[in-house]
Amino acid sequence: MTIRAYATVVADVPTLRKVLVVEDQQELAELVQLHLKDLNCEVSLAFDGPSGLAQIRAHDFDLVILDLMLPGIDGLEICRRLRAGPRYVPVLMLTAKTSEVDRVVGLEVGADDYVTKPFSIIELVARVKAIFRRGDALAQAEAAPRSGAIRAGELSIDPERREAAISERPVELTAKEFDLLLHFARSPGRVFTRSQLLDSIWGYSHSGYEHTVNSHINRLRSKIERDPANPRYILTVWSVGYKFNDALERQAR
After folding, report:
1. Same domain, 131 and 154
2. Number of domains in the chain
3. In whole angstroms, what is the distance from residue 40 CA to residue 208 CA?
4. Are strands 163-166 and 155-158 parallel, antiparallel or unpaired?
5. Do 20 and 65 meet the contact criterion of CB atoms below 8 Å apart?
6. Do 195 and 79 lie in a common domain?
């Protein structure tokens, strides 16, 4: 890639972002720091799990780039603790592990994306930008005029409060589960492929990551469906994807 082409990749991210890189290979951490400065990022570094977790608790970051294998506390445990907290911080995981199991575990504990070492710095920059774009889109959606709560059958969804309930009983959803549910409910009857859902909810479309859509939908069904094996709300369209049941009695308020 030419210098001009690389400049085009990074030139359209003007907003100052605070990023934490938790990586025990100091040279790699500093290389990532150097290139993220081209994205107008203020980058802090940590070289082990405990110090990374301490920085996360002490500061508000717009993104955490997190190595899976760290001294003291590994990246999976740090991600779990992040997701148990009140504020959602995007996580991009870095790891030398390449098996599908490792990728699935990283994504299912709450990572927003996953890059396997050795990686291209251009790919890393593109993934970071995708996460930022997704965050900006969600922020714009939250700032837009509210369309009101959605009701479909026994299910109610309040986009403003980011709450869902079945028969007035609150349903505890993760941030991604709620985003998925709202995305479906706003377009009843429309069939979404896994790639479309990845792009809309996670901010990227990448072959090999469709399994994370399946696992999130399975967990979502387990929380909102009376019989997850025979779902009423989120239906499977075989060989295509998923859709929200448009045959349900529905009202917006």
Report:
1. no
2. 2
3. 30
4. antiparallel
5. yes
6. no
- CATH of residue 234's domain is 1.10.10.10
Please tell me whether residues 136 and 154 are part of one structural domain: no
Task: Tell me the whole-structure pTM to 2 decimals.
Answer: 0.59
* Per-residue pLDDT in tens (0 to 9) along the chain, 253 residues: 333 333 344 444 457 899 999 999 999 999 999 999 988 899 999 999 999 999 999 999 999 999 988 999 999 999 989 888 878 889 998 877 666 666 666 777 778 888 888 888 888 988 898 888 877 766 665 565 555 788 998 999 998 889 999 999 999 998 889 999 999 998 888 888 888 888 788 776 555 567 788 889 999 999 999 999 999 999 999 888 899 998 876 544 4
Q: Which domain holds residue 215?
A: 150-252
Q: How far apart are CA 99 and CA 240, in angstroms?
A: 26
Statement to judge: residues 137 and 77 lie in one domain: yes
Cis bond leading into 86, ω under 30°?
Answer: no
